[in-house]
Specification:
The chain has 429 residues and is of the alpha/beta class. The chain is built from 14 helices and 13 strands. The strands form 2 sheets. It has a 7-stranded mixed beta sheet with strand order 4-10-9-8-7-5-6, with helices on both faces. It has a 6-stranded mixed beta sheet with strand order 1-2-3-12-13-11. Helix 2 runs antiparallel to helix 11 and helix 6 runs parallel beside helix 7. The relative contact order is 0.15.
Length: 429
């Protein structure tokens, strides 16, 4: 262990997940650990942003340390979260409607601005006969939708790399949950065959871009297999909506299956720069979800300023400026992968999410602290979000990053890899 470091930095997320004691000892131990790390000035999480999520940000850590960082921790992929047209639309809605919706959407919380967003989504996607159900969080779209449309004695079949919101939604539905190997259409076929011809309602769940590895969903193969067995399909396009596909309609569009997907999930916190999300389904199904997704029924509707801002962001993303921003984010991501891949393990990424796999969970706090002090901020994933010993940084590339910023970030990350021992072995010609 390097001089000056103690065992308080040997942190792993699962250390504080559970306790067999009657008292909440896991909460006490976690709080004591945080106190110790904060007192030593090394707590690298929850650093307070002093402005919008731009490619470079000013942050103040809990210790009071002020830093300027290249921001690779924010998924504002197209830079629309601070676009002046988006801000103007949000300000106008704030002046008209006030701060919040102040009610459940099925009671008094549905505002005209919500219907405007629904109409804009349907117009953008070009799917006749569909409806939209809006949720105040992207996570809630999956948990609420699955729990509403899948029942006991039905079946949910999930890609093993699917997001936790899909897994939790499947569990909440009380259906039988099955898994198929990641992106493996042949394994999906074997699972569906095993359910038999009288299995009842079956829902296959996958994603457009998988957030842990940055790879694309194998939708061109998976959707036809599901349909051949009479299963419905849910595709979560959280990290791909407005970024992937020739028109920004996601990986479903890119793979030619957009009109075959029964539940298209989009979130507003990524490329659209806001918060919340939606599921697009048959009109009658969307109306049912509006009433029977409990986390929607018993939550306040999305606030009007964010709703209007998201609508404006969608309008920009659907036009020539959106196409140009998509081009830039793809080019920027390719540049960062090219700079990093000879030196560190970036896995199977093919998107604007570039993971750097450092492996050992106990490096997490030390690595994050070191990177921030060197001017870089990235998101972290470790067990149980990814397999044991596959902890990783997730670097979110945006359209507004410059080549200089990405080169600077790559240089720091490569130095970190050598310092902490996760650099790729040198190859010989």
């Amino acid at each position: 262990m390097p001089p000056g470091e103690t065992d308080i930095y040997e942190y792993t997320y699962d250390m504080f997940l559970s306790s067999i004691e009657g008292e909440q000892s896991e909460a006490t131990r976690f709080s004591e650990w945080m106190d110790a790390v904060e007192a030593d000035g090394r707590y690298a999480f929850e650093a307070l942003r002093q402005g919008a999520q731009r490619p470079e940000v000013e942050v103040v850590r809990t210790s009071g340390l002020a830093l300027r960082l290249v921001n690779l921790a924010s998924y504002n992929y197209l830079g629309l979260g601070y676009h002046p047209v988006v801000i103007e639309a949000a300000q106008a809605a704030l002046a008209r409607y006030g701060l919040g919706a102040a009610s459940s959407p099925v009671i008094a919380g549905t505002l005209q601005v919500h219907k405007d967003l629904e109409a804009s989504l349907l117009d953008f996607l070009g799917l006749p006969g569909r409806g939209v159900s809006l949720f105040s969080s992207g996570y809630g779209v999956n948990t609420g939708t699955l729990a509403a449309v899948v029942k006991r004695r039905h079946h949910v079949v999930v890609d093993r790399s699917a997001h936790m919101s899909i897994l939790e939604g499947a569990q909440l539905s009380r259906a039988s949950v099955h898994y198929f190997n990641h992106n493996d259409a042949a394994d999906l076929e074997a699972v569906l065959e095993g359910l038999g011809p009288d299995s009842g309602r079956v829902l296959v769940c996958t994603e457009g871009v998988f957030s842990a590895d940055g790879d694309l969903g194998n939708l061109g193969a998976i959707v036809p297999v599901a349909k051949r067995f009479g299963a419905q399909v849910l595709v979560d396009e959280a990290h791909s909506f407005l970024v992937a596909g020739p028109g920004g309609r996601g990986v479903c569009e890119e793979h030619g299956v957009l009109d075959q997907v029964d539940y298209l999930v989009v979130t507003f916190s990524k490329a659209l720069g806001g918060v919340g999300g939606a599921v697009i389904a048959k009109r009658e199904v969307a109306r049912y979800i509006n009433w029977y997704a409990r986390c929607r029924m018993f939550s306040c509707a999305i606030d009007p300023a964010v709703t209007a801002g998201v609508t404006a962001a969608l309008r920009i993303g659907a036009g020539p400026e959106g196409a140009e921003r998509r081009r830039r984010v793809v080019e920027n991501a390719a540049l960062l992968r090219r700079l990093l891949s000879p030196q560190v393990l970036v896995g199977r990424t093919e998107s604007w999410i570039v993971p750097v796999i450092y492996g050992e969970e106990r490096l997490t706090l030390k690595l994050c602290d070191w990177l921030q002090r060197e001017g870089i901020d990235g998101s972290v994933m470790e067990f149980p979000a990814v397999p044991v010993s596959e902890a990783r940084l997730r670097l979110f590339v945006t359209a507004d990053h410059t080549a200089e910023q990405l080169s600077r970030a790559a240089e720091v990350i490569i130095r970190a890899a050598h310092h902490f021992g996760f650099a790729r072995p040198a190859t010989t010609a």
